[in-house]
Amino acid sequence: NNTTIIVPIVDSPGNNYSISFGDGITLSNQTGQVIHTYNTPGDYTVTISTGFSQIHFGSLLSSNLRPKSIEQWGDIAWSTMEGAFSGCSSLTINATDGPDLTNVTNLKSMFSGCTSLNQSINHWDVSNVTDMSGLFNMCSSFNQPLNNWDVSNVTNMSQIFSNCEAFNQPLNNWDMSAVTSMFGMFSGTTAFNHPLSNWNVSNVTNMHGVFFISGYNQPLDDWDVSSVTDMSAMFQMAEYNQPLNNWDVSSVTDMGNMFSDESMFNQPLSNWDVSNVINMNRMFEMSSINQDLSNWDFNNAVTYYSFAFSGLDTNNYDKLLARFAALGLQNKNIESTGLRYCDAVVRSYLINELDWNISGGLPGLNCTPNKIMGIVTFDQNNDGCNNEDPKFSNIRMTAANSPLTYSTFTSATGNFNLNVQQGTYVTQVSGLPPYFNTSPANSVTTFNGINDIETLDFCITSSLAINDLRVTLIPINEARPGFLAKYRAVVENRGTQTIEYGTLAITFNTALQSFLLSNPAVNT
User: Fold this and answer.
1) Is residue 4 packed enough to be buried (19+ CB in 10 Å), middle (13-18) or exposed (0-12)?
2) Can you list the domains of the chain with their CATH numbers?
3) Cα dihedral across residues 54, 116, 64, 3: positive or negative
4) Tens digit of each residue's pLDDT (9 = 90 or more) over 12-64
5) Among 61, 135, 300, 329, which one has the highest count of C-beta atoms within 10 angstroms of its own C-beta?
6) CA dihedral 244, 250, 256, 259 (to 10 degrees)
7) For the whole model, what pTM was predicted?
């Protein structure tokens, strides 16, 4: 019903062209946009002479005003193709010649939204082009070879194939050495799955969303990504599962959503240097990853982590929390809904000592800790510890895995038992006066799993003959007139001589206090 067309020639100095509308009407000496109304609806061939260098159908509001096909490019010396045929959803290219792009550096969004486009353009000379961003954006039918294109001068490939659902052609011979931005390059390109391992991406700084919602799954481990600063959403909602551990990500600052909602990826990333990353927002949320990240050097500037509903098992989640604790990171937030932990000590340390807000996460179902156990013996005769020597009771034993220290006291029989999680621990006798020597001074134990037992016995010798007792009277509750007051008396043998028995005498003011009872019972 609409018989009016608009030919959006961009008015530029020196323009002077003629146009034939295919209905017998020809206009001459034109410089800019022209509007023409036909008497009868139908298909018309519009012929435009040289004398202009830019056209922009992307500026038109109605798709009815846009052309259906290009029959011939002719001799027009184009200056730019930015947005030239953007939104021309019915456009096909029947021309066998190619456009003169000698002076063109910009193909930005040239065919964006051209959902019917699917003709060969592999013979085009694009060797001077620097910007191809959005070139085939939303060209849902396009699936033609482009391997003959010389893209060696292109710097911007942002969204060039974004939402090109049908595109699946080889591109591995493209010279990508000048490219700096691959922002969303294959986002939504669900069919594309050709190798790209030969690409030189060493100058790329932006890889945001390169494979967002894509079906790509080819090796990329040889890519030089050392210049990349933005990898946010790079594999978000993708189906990628290839090794990436060789990547040098030391320049990256943004990894937000990098693998979020990624249902397949589960590859080691232990070699990554993430020390400059300041945004990890939802990086692994709802991903399938289940890897050890305990050697990552997390940047203190990161305030929020989310591993909610990820594939992290109890073991790797415990390691991650232990790494956060070891780095001393304070006032952070982590979302861990759907995960389970065994190391409640580390988790409590993060919450209570380092002011972390940990949302979600439940105790593990099969948390069988590792055990460090043994006996502490006092070498009474300085002839080496043996079964005849007395056992050292009430001695503090510690197992340190920085910044955490697990501790317990030996029993009356000198036994101790420490429950610990995975990691490396330095176990030793703690708190002894300097005239005691311990053999060994300490012992280093590494646990890589759970339910392991390490037996460590310690022998204590004295370098001096010391008689030393420490007596402490500790009030258990506040003493108030007319009320009961409770005290605990603690007697410690701080010396090197064995005490068979002894008597503790407590003197108090009988005018103010009266004795009721004690445990053990007193003689007087």
Assistant:
1) exposed
2) 186-279 (no CATH), 290-367 (no CATH), 370-462 (2.60.40.10), 466-524 (no CATH)
3) positive
4) 899 999 999 999 999 999 999 999 999 999 999 999 999 999 999 988 866 66
5) 135
6) 10
7) 0.80
